[in-house]
Amino acid sequence: MNSQPPFLTGERIILRALTTDDASPDYLIWLNDPEVLRYRGPKAWPTTMADLKDFLGGLSGRTDLVLAIRESGTDRHVGNIALNNGR
Q1: Full 3-state SS string of 25-86
Q2: Which end of the chain, N or C, is more open, meaning fewer C-beta atoms within 10 Å of its C-beta?
Q3: Which has more confidence, 60 or 49?
C-alpha cells in the first residue's frame, strides 16, 4: 500500500503520488495488456517487475505530476493519471 498522503480525496477515489509502493502484480498485468496500452504511449512491453520498479523509482526526479488513482474505502489501485509539460 502507498503510504503517501492524498493529493486529492473525492467521494469515490483518492489521488496520491505514484511510488514504488504501487508496484504490484495487477499493475504489471496492465502494463503487459495490449488493450490497456492501446491509447498509451510509449508502448514498451513486455514489462518486468524490475522495469516497473525502476520506472516508479524515477518518478520522484521528474517535473511531471503522476498520481495513482485509488478507490476510496478499499485503497485498491485502479489506474494512474499524469499531467506533464508536453515535452
Answers
A1: HHHHHHHCCCCHHHHCCCCCCCCCHHHHHHHHHHHHHCCCEEEEEEECCCCCEEEEEEECCC
A2: C
A3: 49
